Amino acid sequence: MSVTTSPTTDSAPLTRESGTRLVEGWTALWNGDIALTEQILAPGFRLHFADDFDGTGSAKSFGQDELTAFISANSHTLTGLAFAADAAPLIDAERGEMACRWIESHADGGGDVVVKSGIDMFAVADGRISAVWSLTGNRRFVA
Question: Which residues are 129's β-sheet partners?
Fold first, then answer.
């Protein structure tokens, strides 16, 4: 899946539309579209994990290079790995921040589907994601 994003600029602040495009791009990036990295991630980008996400360790922080290596490694390791936004993002245009629930699914060694979910909180600067704080759960959120 390839997503075309149009980063906003200082003259075009974060809106529901631009935030939704960034979350779509973020999701596509996690689904292996590494080419989106430069389009959607700001220079100096940092991803902060709030807990132990498989292969990260507690309170791990990634820049762009570590993130793309991590995504590439996981896409080859986990069968059928797929990420999806679980709801429309919440946008705070004044603060340049947004939040989104997401779902991860993949097959385990026995062929069963494992589903996890989490919440990502984003800081957006100059139309690109400058930082993400991510919390992963061991099961899917239930309404």
Answer: 41, 124
> pLDDT tens string for the chain (143 positions)?
444 444 444 446 899 999 999 999 999 999 999 999 999 999 999 999 876 555 555 557 889 999 998 888 877 666 678 889 988 999 999 999 999 999 988 888 777 888 888 999 999 999 999 999 998 876 666 65
Closest of 142, 45, 68 to residue 103, by C-alpha? 142
Residue written as token pair 């947004």: 98
The secondary structure of the chain in percent helix, strand, coil, rounded to multiples of 5, reads 25, 40, 35
Please report, as a single letter, which amino acid is at residue 136. Answer: T
Find residue 131's DSSP bridge partners: 46, 123
The distance between the two most distant Cα atoms of the chain, rounded to a whole number of Å, is: 51
